[in-house]
Design brief:
0% strand; 23 helices; Sodium/glucose cotransporter
Length: 539
């Protein structure tokens, strides 16, 4: 009963605070609905950035990968901090100076409307295929593993997953559809506090459990017994995440995701001024440095405790087993509420970004060029409803075998390389043409699909024979390869079929663009800490 009450209390608290903070917002303009009226402050931006990214697929998925492999998987978190520094210092000032609402809007300014439309469709497709249904499915599956919902309700596991998919999807939709970005960001921030508290509490309680009351004694036991798990370079035979990818596809992945991905960058675009936006992004980067403690270390502790009971093929059960072993009963409800909040935050954030992309890049371009603010808001809400229903229908149909996190990253990588190439060349050159950008955004994803999915086995065999190696080439290397191919393609096409560079009219920024005076220093310290982490943990 106490667990149920604590669950209801925290979930209700988030809803009430979000409502109280947004009940007087009129939502009459697209900026009000899609960018929170450009009024978001640093801590709200930071909380929303973290919770938009983190969910049960990280808490359960990355801990599972750490259980089955090594802490090298923490690279997904630590290297993200470097990309966030780049966002704060380079990309965000450029976005805010142009008064952008979406990333495809920049492509319309730099190239043409058709380029914007293609980019919008690719963003929406990646969200619908790779993020929305996956977040719902693994959120529901994770909650079933953690709390035995089917047993509590007296129903089959598959039925329990369906019920939770629709319950979480419906609740998350309400935030995104009726509250807009501000309600999403506020709920993310509150859930973020709970997520951080619980995320750090689990490894602390687990180490106290291992050390019989001695925290550092528990850590020493785990490190002494399974030292191979602490090799951050990931250079064991057949590595799941080899060290070399940090200098190839990981760079491309992180720069795209944290510097140019609409569902992430939209939080910073809603900043009340540049200084608040930079502070928010850099605060989130600091939390990324703490991330491995919550979403990687528990997997290693679980391996120490359960390695004789749980094989690598069942690694997805490692985190739920650890939680059920060490979590006191009074905290179970709070933990469940935080997990639900994490799923809600990612789902409603991506849903809000999808609505923004559709309204600005599809509805206003093709359906109603003179759409008023309320009409754009209406179209965004309609889009959210349709995508939410599609995601809830599709979620239970996804194959759950293998690494969840790798599945997500492989699907996303199909679009990341080509999209980043187009955006970077748009920023850095004037001679690259709209024609080359459109061709690149169509052919680039197809090339990656053929290399990794359609003819993956044949491609692997060819490169293994060419390079004289027996190990499988990591998909992140192919991401970097496609990124370079796309750049070369765009440069070549632009040289063969040049176009005149037409400077488009850019709307002036409506906010203060004075940078945060400590932005560069903070960025340097964060970058130094990332490098120091690898130096200290490298074997």
């Amino acid at each position: 009963m106490l667990a149920v009450l604590s669950f209801i209390f925290f979930t209700g608290l988030v809803a009430i605070i979000s409502y109280m903070k947004t009940r007087n917002d009129q939502m009459k303009t697209s900026d009000d609905y899609f960018l929170g009226g450009r009024s978001l402050t640093a801590w709200v931006i930071a909380g929303s950035l973290i919770l938009t990214n983190l969910s049960t697929e990280h808490m359960i998925g990355l801990n599972a990968d750490a259980y089955a492999h090594t802490i090298a998987v923490m690279a997904w978190e630590t290297t993200a901090a470097l990309a966030m520094v780049l966002t704060a210092l380079y990309f965000l000032p450029k976005y805010l100076a142009r008064g952008l609402t979406t990333i495809p809007e920049f492509l319309a300014l730099r190239f043409d409307q058709n380029t914007r439309v293609i980019a919008t469709i690719l963003f929406l497709f990646s969200y619908v295929v790779a993020i929305l249904p996956v977040v719902l499915l693994f959120g529901a599956s994770g909650l079933e593993s953690l709390f035995d919902v089917s047993g509590a309700l007296g129903i089959e596991k598959q039925t329990a997953v369906w019920v939770m998919v629709w319950a979480i999807g419906t609740l998350g939709s309400l935030y995104a559809i009726f509250g807009g970005l501000k309600a999403v960001a506020i709920s993310d921030t509150i859930n973020g506090i709970g997520f951080l508290a619980v995320g750090l509490l689990v490894p602390i309680l687990a180490l106290l459990y291992v050390g019989e009351g001695d925290l550092f004694g528990g850590l020493n036991k785990v490190y002494t017994e399974v030292p191979e798990k602490f090799d951050i370079t990931g250079d064991e035979p057949g590595s799941f995440l080899p060290f070399g990818v940090l200098f190839t596809g990981m760079i491309v992945n992180q720069i795209f995701f944290w510097c140019t991905n609409q569902s992430i960058i939209q939080r910073a675009l809603g900043a009340k001024n540049l200084a608040e936006g930079q502070k928010g992004v850099l605060i989130a980067a600091c939390f990324k440095l703490l991330g491995p403690i919550a979403i990687v270390l528990p997997g290693v502790i679980a391996f120490y405790l359960f390695k004789d009971q749980l094989g690598p093929e069942n690694a997805m059960l490692a985190y739920p087993m650890l939680v059920n072993e060490i979590l006191p009963d009074p905290l179970v409800g709070f933990f469940a509420a935080v997990m639900v909040g994490a799923v809600l935050s990612t789902f409603n954030s991506v849903l809000n970004s999808s609505a923004t992309l559709f309204s600005q890049g599809i509805y206003q371009v093709f359906m109603n060029k003179d759409a008023s603010g309320p009409e754009l808001v209406w179209s965004g809400r309609l889009c959210s409803i349709i995508l939410a229903i599609v995601a809830m229908l599709a979620a239970p149909l996804i194959n759950t075998e293998g690494s969840l996190y790798n599945y997500l990253q492989k699907i996303n990588a199909t679009f990341f390389g080509p999209m980043l190439a187009v955006i970077l060349l748009g920023f850095m050159t004037k001679f690259v043409t709209a024609r080359s950008a459109k061709i690149a955004m169509v052919l680039g994803p197809l090339i990656f699909y053929f290399l990794v999915f359609a003819f993956g086995a044949n491609v692997q065999s060819f490169f293994q024979e060419l390079l004289g190696i027996s190990e499988e080439i990591h998909f992140l290397h192919f991401l970097a390869l496609v990124f370079l191919i796309t750049i070369f393609m765009m440069l070549l096409i632009s040289k063969i079929w040049p176009e005149d560079y037409l400077k488009k009219t850019v709307k002036k920024a409506s906010i203060n663009l004075e940078p945060w005076k400590y932005a560069k220093l903070s960025g340097f310290i964060i970058s130094f800490l990332v490098i120091l982490t690898y130096v200290l943990l490298a074997k």
